Amino acid sequence: MVALRETRTTWIAYALVLALLAAVAYGGLAHQSLDTDDFEYLRDANAANQDLSLLFSTDRELPGRPIAEAVFLLGHKLWGQNPTPYHLLLVGLHLLTSLLLAQTFRRLGAHLEISLVGGLLFLLNVAHFRAVQWIACLVYPLALSLALVAILLFMRYLATERRLLLVAAALLQTVAIFAHAGSVCAAPFCLYLAWRRYQRPGAAAPLLAVAILIPGLLHFLYPQAPQARETLSIADPIAVFGQFLGYMGRCLDSAHWLVAGQIQSWEMITGAAVLLGLGWLVVRRTGPEADWGLFALLALIPFVARETVEPSRFFYLSSAGTSLVLAWLLRTGIVSAQRLVAAWFRPFAWGIALSGLVATSLFSLHKAETLAYYSSGRSYDARLQQQQALKLYKKAIARDPRLIPADGYARMAVAGYRYGDTCQIELNRGISIYPNIAALYVLASIGEYLQTDPARYQRADAVVNAVLEKTSKPAELKRQGAVALQHIGLYYAEKGQSERAVKAFERALDLRPDYELALGGLAEVYKRRGQTAQAIDYYRRFLQARPNMAIGHFSLANLLIKKKDLPAAITAIERGVALEAHHPGPWFKLAQLHRAVKHPAEAENAIRKALASASNKREYWIECGHIAYLYHNLGQLQKALVLYKEVTKAMPAYPSAHFNLGLLQYREGRYAEAVDSLRQVVQLSPEDEEAQRVLALATARMENAVSALVASVNEG
Q1: Which of 150, 299, 461, 660 sits between 20 and 30 A of 271, alpha carbons compared?
Q2: Residues contacting residue 133 through CB under 8 Å, at least 6 positions apart
Q3: pTM over 0.90
Q4: Residue 666 to residue 696: CA distance in whole angstroms
Q5: Can you give the pLDDT at residue 708?
Q6: Which of 334, 358, 336, 356 is CA-nearest to residue 347?
């Protein structure tokens, strides 16, 4: 048997093998989309590109991870919103971290075989699959890589006493924590190594200080960061310990086989056994397996207070330790068996064991990509990008229909109905997998509303009613059914098929009489059909359910204007601008309405609000001129004069305002001012005969007044 030798060629070959495995295991991620926090990070990066002062601001949507913010800023400059380069970057970081981990194992004393296998097992570890699938999780390989280098520098410092190495280790530990606070585990790990190998635990004091101060600083600077709120809300120590056991169990049971979803009770029992085993290693053993067993435990502690539906990303740092322990167990077993068999058994056993683990890992990671499509679909769905969500749901179901929960089929159907897709094939598949889920039968029946035969609607209603009578939770089914029917109504409304849209919306209201989106849909359909009275009725019902929807108040006001009910329209717009005061259009409309009902003061107040937020103000100043004219007609001459002067100052090329101002000044006996104003009109509109006539009168009156004044002076 040829012994494995540690040479540069060995490590180069090892790197090539890992790169090949990474391409096979994670190459499909190049086709993945964005998911959950990815959207917020990219929006933050876009904002920082526009204004660099927002880079580390507390006003970001996702503050508190400066390294991630810097990486996303750079990525956004290079690739914009395209998810593919980000996914490839994350896979590349994971590959480099795996190689660095193997080197760290070796430099900290692990056998060459254990080091190489440990790095390979970490690369293909299934327990942390979300940390490699989800772009926002690129902070995990960054943090782990930096923490590993910090550990290596610290161990080198212990061996050489070069203080510069300690300073470098502390700096890298700081940067690692800025990447992800979970990397604080490196500091107590260094403390343990310093105590166990050199009996110098005090040497790790700078790293421990960093591990305490930097997270505290992040909590102080970014108190609204999600991780800050979650980790400071520990209320039940027993529950936290139970979650720690569950996480420990998931690290083992899903290391190379896919186990997704929330932690189960049996995993807590498994975690207790794992905890006992790792505790035995730490107490009874002195080799690297004991060290990295402790690292696995330490790396989970920062996450025990964070509960989530899919916690796999929390296992990224911990699986570095469990991968080494698993590699050690494999080698120990193979070496023990070799003594009983023969020398040839060792490479044969390694080949069988690694082939099996690689095969199950690749199979499980492929299945995990299905969950990534599904999770991404839900993220797009939540952001109302339902067409993209539908594509992702269908792709996930096509890859592995049994891996998608029943709720996923329901979400897909509701998204599909929005675009006229019955999703019949996928729903039938879902029903065959989940025959006891009533929601799938209800949604499949509602899909009949996308057919052209009205008789099928009646059959669909009969099936829905029958299912509702049998279920123990009719309210939830009615909610899902109403949403699905409302989506069908929207589809028909956009296609101009108003009768079918009305039927879908009305059926939605049969299931949920107060469903505001169906009420709003009917209001829009009736408005397009010119049935103003019905549209007004449904808008009012909609606003009873959604009183804070400003656009609903504005739409209702437009319909009331058509009915000549101006006082009610004013009330509707006033309610709308009370909710959204930053748009000038509604204020402009409100000013026009107040002017129409001869409320000049209210009209002036509204138009000033419009002017305050408008960019193109011409039409708003013209409206000011109309309001000044109303003041004039109502005998409020001083207010008219003030407003006319503002209009002419803002619009010096607006002849009507100059004319009305000059006419008012003439009637007030201000002949000289009137002459100035009317001369402006004549200059702007030389063909305006009325302006010329009034100008002549004003000039004559002014001259007569001057002559009379001169005569009185002479007589005196």
Answers
A1: 150
A2: 29, 32, 35, 368, 369, 372
A3: no
A4: 11
A5: 67
A6: 334
